[in-house]
Design goal:
Number of helices: 8
Structural class: alpha/beta
CATH architecture: 3-Layer(aba) Sandwich
Radius of gyration: 17 Å
Helix content: 25-40%
Shape: globular
Low-confidence stretches: none
Oligomer: single chain
Mean pLDDT: 92
Number of strands: 12
CATH superfamily: Ribokinase
Length: 277
């Protein structure tokens, strides 16, 4: 009998009971793109589409054990990291993942929610830079998060180029700077490669508030395409296109009373079956 395997993605992130962001968005995205989703819970935010009400921590040793349990059994082809809200948690995740250097890591440095709620402690930023940036193939901050990292205001595409250059100097291997918060009819994103090249992407901006979880979705989509064997540059392009279409197909749907979710399943793919060697 012939056997197969699925391209697997591990999502390490926080919870979202409203279903639009965090692990829920990760699992939906990974599944919609034909990959097998495994997950590790890093925190338990109490939130809905209107904002974050509270955040309850997960014991650090429990996070470590979750990662080890998954990696020992279902080795992923890519890893997505989302909400990591304390420096101790950063250290635990980085130390555990350093044992698996061949698995590409896509890191979405979640610091500010779509609602504008600050999700991260000040001391944690330095820990992210020192320990998680070096092991990540790509980081995907939004403009609010990039402004924190670059320590500057970002109001224009020119500001994005300057901020990206500053963030690269912090030691990350690749950077996708998402320009969705800029004024204008187009969304410009900049992909700073580790060879010094910068690729620019433009997408139409839609009149909608249904963008809750778009950052989580993007990083998971990129990780999913990497798990399928795409190059990082190709995964960056395809991941952005997926998010763009997910926003478009969910822009007129009312879910909750605040910032609604994307339509992750606008064109779901069957689970991809790869031959076992």
């Amino acid at each position: 009998m012939k056997h197969y395997t699925y391209p697997s993605v591990l999502a390490i992130a926080g919870f979202d009971g409203s279903g639009g962001a965090g692990l829920q968005a990760d699992i939906k995205t990974i599944s919609a793109l034909g990959c097998y989703a495994t997950s590790v819970l890093t925190a338990l935010p109490v939130q809905n589409t209107q904002g974050v009400r509270n955040i309850y921590p997960i014991p650090y040793h429990a996070v470590k054990e979750q990662i080890e349990a998954v990696m020992d059994d279902i080795m992923p082809q890519a890893i997505k990291i989302g909400m990591v809200h304390t420096s101790e948690l950063v250290d635990v995740i980085a130390a555990t993942l350093q044992r698996y250097p061949k698995v590409p890591v896509i890191f979405d440095p979640v610091m500010v929610a779509t609602s504008g709620h600050r999700l991260i402690e000040e001391a944690t930023i330095e820990a992210l830079i020192n320990t998680l940036f070096p092991i990540a193939a790509l980081i995907t901050p939004n403009l609010d998060e990039a402004a924190l990292l670059a320590q500057m205001e970002i109001k224009t595409v020119e500001d994005m180029y300057l901020a990206g250059t500053k963030i690269l100097k912090l030691g990350c291997n690749g950077l996708l700077l998402k320009g969705g918060h800029l004024e204008g009819k187009k969304i410009t994103s900049l992909y700073f490669q580790n060879d010094g090249k910068v690729l620019s992407f433009e997408f139409e901006k839609f009149d909608t508030t249904n963008t809750h979880g778009s950052g989580c979705t993007l990083s998971s989509a990129i990780a999913s395409y990497r798990a399928q064997g795409k190059s990082l540059a190709e995964a960056v392009l395809l991941g952005q296109d997926y998010v763009h279409q997910a926003i478009y197909n969910g822009k007129d749907v009312l879910v909750g009373k605040g910032n609604g979710p994307l339509n992750h399943f606008f064109n779901p793919q069957k689970l991809i079956k790869n031959d076992l060697d």
